[in-house]
Amino acid sequence: MGQIFRLKVWGEYALFTRVEAKVERVSYPVMTPSAARGILEGIFWKPEFKWRIKSIHVLKPIQYYSILRNEVASIVPSNIATSKRDYFTDDDRQLRHSIMLRDVAYIITAEMRLVNPTMENQIKYSSMFLRRVNKGQCFHRPYLGTRECSLHFSLPEDDDQAIPDTMDIGPMLFDLKYPADPGQKNARAIPYFFDAKLDRGVLHVPEYLYKEVDG
């Protein structure tokens, strides 16, 4: 059992895309556990530990916002810089609809689970994380689902309260389980879902999911 931390994040817009949405992007009403983990790793990450999301508190009423954006229709090849084939974004541009969230704020409760736990390492990494949060430091700028939805972060305040809403969200993406041998032929990441529910403004993440993904 590792140390538990709480981090407050907020921003003007968010887009946690539902996986069942195809061309048009539609956001979950609440931040996903994988997005929360990505935020924490953007602030502080070491191979000596893993972040385990326990719960996500929704601090502001859920509001949707509809926009149209220009996006490219195909995936740009990773070797585009060295490829002799020309690629013009203007020829591959499409107008797509996105249903996003606006004016969001959350408190992420997470456990720092050390791979080889010792009291010395727990104190060291805990202090490093708290120091980075207090100074606003991060390895890369965390975002709320997509990179254009940047965020602010800090430690929670005493008067931060979850909204009173309760709702069934349905199947939500928990995380991806990657193959032990990435070089294996036809190796693919396996998505894991859980039946998400917002209980008086709090999304609780079932503990058994970590046993399935990390096991």
Write up what this structure looks like.
There is one protein chain. With 215 residues, the chain is an alpha+beta fold. It has a single domain (3-75, 90-175, 195-207), classed as 2-Layer Sandwich (Alpha-Beta Plaits). The chain is built from 3 helices and 9 strands; from the N terminus they run ββαβββαββββα. Strands 1, 2, 3, 4, 5, 6, 7, 8 and 9 form a 9-stranded mixed beta sheet that branches. The radius of gyration is 19 Å and the shape is globular.
Secondary structure: number of strands: 9
H/E series: EEHEEEHEEEEH
Number of helices: 3
Oligomer: single chain
Q: Structural class, from secondary structure content? A: alpha+beta
Count of domain modules: 1
Stretches with pLDDT under 50, minimum 5 residues: none
Taken as a percent bin, the fraction of beta residues is 35-45%
Q: Helical amount among residues, as a percent range? A: 10-25%
Largest sheet: 9 strands, mixed
In short:
This protein is of the alpha+beta class.
Set down the secondary structure blueprint.
Layout: E1 3-14, E2 25-26, H1 33-43, E3 49-58, E4 64-72, E5 93-114, H2 119-135, E6 152-154, E7 167-177, E8 190-199, E9 202-204, H3 208-214
Parallel strand pairs: 2-5
Antiparallel strand pairs: 1-5, 1-6, 3-5, 3-9, 4-5, 7-8, 8-9
